[in-house]
Structures
1.
Amino acid sequence: MITPKVRVRFAPSPTGGLHLGGVRTVLYNYLFAKKHGGEFILRIEDTDQSRFVPGAEQYIMDCLQWCGLMPDESPVKGGAFGPYRQSERKEIYRRYAQQLVDDGYAYYAFDTTEELEWMREKYKTPANPAPQYDASMRTKMRNSLSLPDEDLKALLDAGTPYVIRILMPVDETVAFEDMVRGQVQFHTSTVDDKVLLKADGMPTYHLAVVVDDHLMQITHAFRGEEWLPSAPVHLLLWKYLGWADHMPQWAHLPLILKPDGHGKLSKRDGDRLGFPVFTMNWTDPKTEETAKGFKELGFLPEAFVNMLAMLGWNDGTEQEIMTIEEMTEAFAIERVHKGGARFDFEKAKWFNHEWIKRSTTKRLLPDLKQIFSEHDIEAPEALLESIIPSIKERCTLLTDFITQGSFYFKAPAAYDTAAVLPKWNSDKKRFFDTWNTELEKMETWTTEAIEQSFKDTAADFSIKPGELQLPLRIMLVGGKFGPPVFEIAAIIGQTDTRARINKAATEFTDMQAPV
RNA sequence: GGCCCGUUGGUCAAGCGGUUAAGACGCCUCCCUUUCACGGAGGAAUCACGAGUUCGAUUCUCGUACGGGUCACCA
């Protein structure tokens, strides 16, 4: 038998921001596909018209693009298995739903939402707080199994809205081999008769995922662990539709959990704990509220994706920093963890810091140009390019380049006075005044020359150079940070250096003067 | 509550019957540096519990506890 080409899919519902867990699912799909020379498909699961959010689909595409995880087939790119939006495939599902009814694997149900609520309320007991529409219940409800033929015909003829439900067998065991969990099994008596086709003619996830995975020739289906309880429905559907011999291999991925407390990570946790949960900024078109994204916070996509990959998978070596190519090479779905992983923002930042340190100036430059421009700091490209190597090790986020680098482009707006004022005195003031005139005379403006001049003048004043370096730094930079101070002076130039010293020295003395 | 899944330091985790139980993040100490980082050295901290199986269990089995998921005409 010829092994079919690997085909995997990511099938989000376009209802809002792309959650970090979603990206990890994309990533594992992508890595698996590329590892096996296969294809990665993006399918939009927009069968719930009431939850449709304008712009969400484009946003998902933008996120994937930023992450560098582009699908081989998608609604916009097309492919041989389209359309890739489920809303555009409506008729296909109806046909298969009908087939299931005709074959006795599914049935019509006419129960209204109110009737269903009433049933759940009526049969609710402390021992069974969530009654199901199952074998024991369906005889009590209004459906093609319980109704006499004439009643059924009448309802159908009258055009009464109905749904199609799967008829769960009473006493079967459904088992399958999950690629991350191994053997998993369910008893059909514990599973309810899930709705397959809704009253509006749209399929539910359960029908659509099976039909589309079949039609799109998906070979491996990865999804979050939250889908595990409905897996038996899908398995049975594959069987009932007659496609069991090429059902994809399943892998249910562990969840990403809240860093504190319990449960899976949600958007609210980000707001509450101060870190993003979405990939890129997402503005809800209804509320106009914007949720922060990793991109805008200053993450490099390489780091974001790397960090996500390691949340639940590792290749067994000690290497943690990996490119997408290295991950593709090393990836093995069997090595994905079974247990959920708590998200740790500190570790996420560490990944970003490592990636910034390892990135070339060329890689960083375009992003940084944009960030500086967004902060209204005029940063000439050549100058920006030249300072990147010396400050990148101090930057955890791309946005840190603003605080770590803006002094190269403009004089500090404020000084860390606590660091300098307590030890500021008239001698030091005179030193800087004198040195400033020395600087004016300098003809070669290099780091070494400036430092030499500084030391010489300090010697003249019998002040230890070390006592003067911090004040100088505060004058030029504004705070206790940044590369070696004489290097900074060399870069910002003679005129600016002298101007900053002059201005700051005066201010220090003024601020210190008794009132 | 039923069903299903899981459980190695605070977090991510290696381990797949015999190890001094790796490594990373974070935290602490020190070195380097008259700034901040980077870098280097070191430290505290772990196999949920109880029975088996076995000469020997972190590793296998079963219980218990705890955690998670799910129980919509949402995905």
2.
Amino acid sequence: MSPKTKEQFEEIRQRSAAGIMQAALELFAHKGYSGTSISAIAKEAGVSKGLIYNYYASKEALLEAIILGAVEMGDKSFHEGLNPDFSPKEQIHNLIEIGFAMLTKNIQYWKLITSLAFQPGVLDRFKPGILEKGIEELQHLEELFRALGKEKPKQEALFFAAFMDGLALQIMNMGELFPLAEMKAYAIEKFCLS
Amino acid sequence: MSPKTKEQFEEIRQRSAAGIMQAALELFAHKGYSGTSISAIAKEAGVSKGLIYNYYASKEALLEAIILGAVEMGDKSFHEGLNPDFSPKEQIHNLIEIGFAMLTKNIQYWKLITSLAFQPGVLDRFKPGILEKGIEELQHLEELFRALGKEKPKQEALFFAAFMDGLALQIMNMGELFPLAEMKAYAIEKFCLS
DNA sequence: GTCTATAAAAGGATAGAC
DNA sequence: GTCTATCCTTTTATAGAC
């Protein structure tokens, strides 16, 4: 009667845990953390409420798992663009490309992260780490813009970061209405000139 | 025994309703809509739970009152900057000044509005109106940038809007760490040139 | 006009059966 | 590994006293 190996069990566990996480991500991003109930997650994932607690100790632990995944992904993507084999101009170009790609491909993650940024108490524990990564990224940007010959690289870095953040906001809210390709080209034009 | 006139009653009502609304605004902005309970609002406002329902039919009606106030305020501020007596350059300069002033003075409103933008279902009813106002404002901006001689006024308008949105995000998250004055000067420099 | 007490519902979390 | 049933807490909302 279908004897299962350890590996098969492990795979089932993986699938269940991942399915729950995916459902939670979608709902947290869509309705906010507090606005999403465990029942809703269970329904979306097609499992029972009880099963969720088999994989995640609490609703907050589930959130934590999602956050950690998102932060890691974002950080990794950012550093992919920073290959020093390329010229500063090309690196900035890369960052814009990667940024736009992330925004379109993983919009849910950023919707969640951004919305959580507005709910202190929910992810206060992660804020120091996220802020630190942000500052670190700003410094990288500053160096790039300095190498590119911008007169005020520090301001330019903040300017760039603000633009990318605002972009995320607009894409989230305007959806398909947002002229993505046009704006990417314009951003490259704006930021890659010395 | 202190007989009250109709006007006095009305004033008391006003004060209570406004106090509740202010408390709700602060908590909604801080903890999100779903994350804020009626009890918490009552405590913050220094009144009983019951009294809140005397002035607002439901938690959502309270939110609605706040949103309407915020949208009206933002719209009014934007149009204040659009005085056609001034040159395009001066108008854009004004919009930046007003934008920065709003962000620092009424940060709570924008925190709330922005956070709600991420919680569909909560204020879906207002989205069409807000989106329409946004498009209208973009068109105004486009005209201004065209008059200023920008080569791609439409993109520049979106670029400007994205920057201002991102700015709001950064100020909300970085707080006092954000170099406000510097960035305002830099923004003026960037956008007011033909 | 305001408060206290209470009803009615929903949410997070656990225990035990299969 | 998964589900159903249940407990306990919190929440929204109402009713009635002062």
